[in-house]
């Protein structure tokens, strides 16, 4: 009996222990649940620490990379210090070739039909040489008739003189009165006057006939021939010939108003006709006293000796010397312009660009001279100026190291 009770008691103790354990766990949680919560907290803390570390690292990297990124955004520009160069002044102009002294020659007489043409365009002639002859058959007959009238007048004058001489011999004898002598003297004087009139008329006819021959007033080159045999011409009509006096040519070079003011008579010039590789030397012999209101240009007349390559009416380019200047020279890429005029960008000591207004001067093979606005000691932006604005920071690189 005692044995059974002890067995029953031993079996009840585990059951009671289980109930107490279950009630305790339901109220306070199991050890396994506490371990899971701790693990989750540890994981969350680790993840948060990692995120925080990453953010801190990113901020540190960004702060260290910011100067490099800012520096990378500053544009690099090529600059040069132009200095001052002694430049021989030169003005380039274009114009038309022509005779320096063109001489139009026409008929100055009564005119008529051209019987002969003795020269052609391109021929050289001397002063007084006959260029063309106008038919003078009628005028020649008139001259011959007048020459006969001169002879008649002379005969009448000789007869009147003889009558007067005889009368003077008879006056002393009383056979002829003084009144008769006076009448014979007047007759003699009238006859002599008629001789002079006839001679003058004959001279006029001969002069008119001489003007029927078209002659060269001076020696030179025949540029134009505008008459043919059989053509009827008259005084005051179209010139029959155009002569270049002495064969001298010239270029009527058109230059701007400002360039014309820089030129002077006598300065040398080099002329190159279009289509020719030859260069001809001449000099400015006349400057136009007026300026064309529409084009604002004037004419510089450049004289040159004759050459067959210089054809009147042709086009040519002239390089005219206009003294020398000392000024900075810049390439065309460095110079910009707008409504306010021409300007360049210069880089200051703080490596920022500033706009500098300039006046342009002579254009040379090396570049464009700057008449005013620069001293030559500035750092001038050579390229990419169109992408800059005043005040922009830049990283200047000299032209020698650019590349």
UniProtKB/TrEMBL annotation:
Keywords: Coiled coil, Membrane, Transmembrane, Transmembrane helix
Pfam families attached to this UniProt entry: Beta-barrel_RND_2, BSH_CzcB, YknX_C
InterPro entries: Beta-barrel_RND_2, BSH_CzcB-like, RND_pump_MFP, YknX-like_C
Single GO molecular function: efflux transmembrane transporter activity
YknX-like C-terminal permuted SH3-like domain segment(s): 330-395
Coiled coil: 138-208
Family in the record: Belongs to the membrane fusion protein (MFP) (TC 8.A.1) family.
NCBIfam families: RND_mfp
Protein name in UniProt: Efflux transporter periplasmic adaptor subunit
């Amino acid at each position: 009996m005692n044995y059974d009770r002890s067995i029953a008691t031993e079996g009840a103790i585990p059951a009671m222990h289980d109930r107490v354990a279950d009630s305790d766990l339901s109220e306070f949680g199991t050890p396994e649940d506490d371990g899971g919560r701790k693990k989750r907290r540890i994981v969350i803390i680790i993840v948060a620490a990692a995120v925080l570390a990453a953010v801190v690292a990113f901020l540190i990297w960004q702060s260290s990379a910011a100067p490099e990124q800012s520096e990378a955004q500053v544009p690099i520009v090529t600059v040069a210090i132009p200095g001052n160069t002694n430049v021989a002044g030169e003005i380039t102009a274009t114009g038309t070739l022509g005779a320096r002294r063109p001489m139009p020659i026409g008929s100055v007489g009564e005119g008529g039909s051209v019987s002969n043409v003795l020269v052609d365009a391109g021929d050289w002639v001397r002063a007084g040489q006959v260029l063309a002859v106008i038919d003078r058959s009628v005028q020649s007959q008139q001259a011959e008739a007048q020459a006969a009238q001169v002879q008649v007048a002379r005969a009448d004058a000789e007869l009147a003189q003889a009558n007067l001489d005889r009368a003077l011999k008879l006056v002393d004898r009383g056979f002829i009165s003084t009144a008769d002598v006076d009448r014979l003297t007047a007759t003699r004087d009238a006859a002599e006057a008629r001789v002079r009139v006839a001679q003058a008329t004959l001279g006029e006819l001969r002069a008119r006939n001489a003007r029927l021959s078209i002659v060269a007033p001076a020696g030179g080159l025949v540029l134009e021939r505008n008459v043919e045999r059989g053509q009827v011409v008259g005084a005051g009509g179209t010139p029959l010939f155009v002569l270049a006096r002495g064969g001298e040519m010239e270029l009527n070079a058109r230059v701007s108003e400002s360039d014309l003011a820089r030129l002077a008579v006598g300065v040398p010039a080099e002329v190159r006709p279009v289509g020719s590789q030859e260069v001809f030397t001449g000099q400015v012999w006349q400057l136009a006293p007026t300026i064309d209101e529409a084009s604002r240009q004037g004419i510089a007349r450049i004289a040159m000796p004759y050459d067959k390559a210089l054809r009147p009416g042709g086009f040519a380019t002239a390089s005219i010397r206009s003294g020398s200047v000392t000024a900075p020279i810049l390439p065309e890429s460095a110079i910009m312009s707008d409504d306010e005029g021409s300007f360049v960008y210069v880089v200051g000591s703080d490596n920022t660009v500033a706009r500098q207004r300039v006046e342009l001067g002579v254009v040379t093979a090396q570049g464009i001279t700057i008449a005013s606005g620069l001293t030559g000691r500035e750092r001038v932006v050579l390229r990419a100026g169109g992408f800059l604005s005043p005040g922009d920071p830049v990283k200047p690189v000299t032209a020698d190291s650019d590349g």
